[in-house]
Design brief:
about 140 residues, alpha+beta, four-stranded mixed sheet
């Protein structure tokens, strides 16, 4: 006789806003009075989980780094990652480059759908770059 598997509820996520600093990154919770810093995004995520766990003080369930969800302002993202050319990205995602430029500068705010479209394009480029191997000229 088969036993029915219980569906587990999706793990709760906690949104944090990320900003760049001279020494790395800082983040603050959108929903709780928690802020932290880190030299890398991985360190920042671990520190955010630890700080939020201390605030919530839930002995039965620990807040994990996987539950921390980072949000970055589009303007600061493109400023920080200048290697990602907004004009070329617009071409790749079939978006008017002037429109994307207005989003990046803050002159216009993208809809949720447009934001997702831009994010998918960024992730596609990141995936392509992650699969590349380089060799020296012969």
């Amino acid at each position: 006789m088969k036993t029915a598997k219980r569906k587990q509820a999706p793990e709760k996520t906690y949104p944090f806003i990320v900003e760049w600093t001279k020494t790395g990154f800082s983040a603050y919770s959108k929903d709780h009075a928690v802020a932290t810093t880190g030299e890398t995004l991985n360190e920042l995520r671990r520190n955010a989980a630890e700080a939020l766990g201390l605030l919530l003080d839930t002995p039965r369930k620990k807040v994990t780094a996987k539950q921390i969800h980072f949000f970055m302002d589009m303007r600061y993202f493109f400023k920080q990652y200048r290697v990602l050319n907004a004009r070329q990205l617009a071409h790749r995602i079939d978006m008017n480059h002037t429109l994307l430029s207005q989003y990046v500068s803050g002159a216009k705010m993208p809809s949720e759908e447009q934001t997702e479209r831009i994010l998918l394009g960024i992730r596609k480029v990141a995936k392509e770059l992650a699969s590349v191997s380089l060799s020296p000229h012969n």
